[in-house]
Design brief:
two-stranded parallel ribbon, binds NADP nicotinamide-adenine-dinucleotide phosphate, six-stranded parallel β-sheet, alpha/beta
Length: about 280
């Protein structure tokens, strides 16, 4: 398959490039320097020249607090550009897979969010990502939206990498005890993105590792443990005590109704994924 990947310099983008290459795909990898997704002219030129069979959009402005302070930029990158990529995919006959977020939900629900729950984003980032989903779905029928959350993996500025680094340096760290999500290992997500691109069964999928999810505190303790730092000094704090610019959902655990229906096996349990990640560190 000829797979064009945007955001190839990011955590999920890098894993997706590696995974597709391992499968023998012809990978057209674009980081921000080679394809700024806010440039419609570059998108048109690149797609016309490279004529991909499938497009994985892993590019986004992922600084949730940054988005809150600059809604126009958030909308440009996380909403408008996603629509433009989807339209260009349609024009060259490619299927389009775009990564969205658990932050499209308000977090007030108990239990797990499924496709039957209406998104009610509370942050600028969440609103822009939801608009990105909808613009993409308007622009091409062959659109697969993948909502995910709490991604961990190599090289990311993610919560887990910070936990492991601080625990190894013996530094104390704060972890929120009253917010819950479903952790997702970047290589597992990347493999699922590629599977969904090949399947070409349009829809909105929730892709996270199996298990009942965790609070940040629980996630941090498991991570420190998996990294061999069982004595890490973790201070449990409330989400409200952090006073960050953007609101976050209190509970954004995801579950997928579609994946089992189309024969996709659950991803491994997040605790096993965490141990797999720790072995690579
Ligand atoms: N990380 C999480 O926990 C999480 C949770 C839920 C959903 N997601 C979603 O997962 C996807 C992948 O995120 P990630 O964790 O891999 O984030 P990431 O490491 O920040 O990767 C995003 C990439 O997009 C690039 N980018 C930003 N603006 C761009 C533009 N205008 N044109 C082209 N590329 C641009 C960034 O480049 P620069 O570094 O140069 O800005 C970065 O390399 C995103 O859609 C995100 O919303 C992430």
């Amino acid at each position: 398959m000829r797979v064009l990947i945007t955001g190839a310099g990011g955590m999920v983008g890098r894993e997706s490039v590696e995974h597709c290459r391992r499968l023998g795909d012809e990978v057209l990898a674009h980081d921000r320097a080679s394809l700024d997704i806010t440039r419609d002219d570059l998108i048109a030129e690149t797609f016309a020249r490279e004529r991909p069979d499938a497009v994985l959009n892993c590019a986004a402005w992922t600084d949730v607090d940054g988005c809150e302070l600059d809604p126009l930029r958030a909308h440009r990158v996380n909403a408008e550009a996603v629509g433009a990529l989807a339209l260009a995919s349609r024009q060259v006959g490619a299927s389009f897979v775009t990564v969205s977020t658990d932050y499209v939900f308000d977090g007030e629900r108990e239990g797990f969010y499924t496709q039957r729950d209406d998104p009610e984003p509370r942050s600028v980032y969440g609103v822009a990502k939801l608009q990105g989903e909808r613009r993409a779905q308007f622009s091409t029928a062959r659109c697969t939206v993948v909502r995910t959350g709490w991604i961990f993996g190599a090289g990311g500025k993610n919560f887990l990498a910070t936990v492991v680094a601080r625990a190894r340096r013996g530094e104390p760290l704060k972890a929120i005890f009253d917010a819950w999500g479903t952790p997702t290992y970047a290589p597992h997500l990347a493999a699922r993105l590629r599977e969904l691109a090949a399947l070409d069964l349009p829809g909105t999928y929730h892709v996270v590792n199996a298990g009942d999810g965790a609070s940040y505190e629980e996630f941090a303790r498991e991570a420190a443990d998996a990294a061999g730092c069982a004595g890490a000094r973790i201070e449990a704090v409330s989400a409200d005590s952090l006073a960050r610019p953007a609101p976050r959902p209190r509970n954004s655990r995801l579950r997928c109704l579609l994946s089992p229906a189309v024969g996709l096996a659950p991803l491994p349990d997040w605790r096993d994924a965490l141990r797999q990640f720790a072995e690579t560190q």
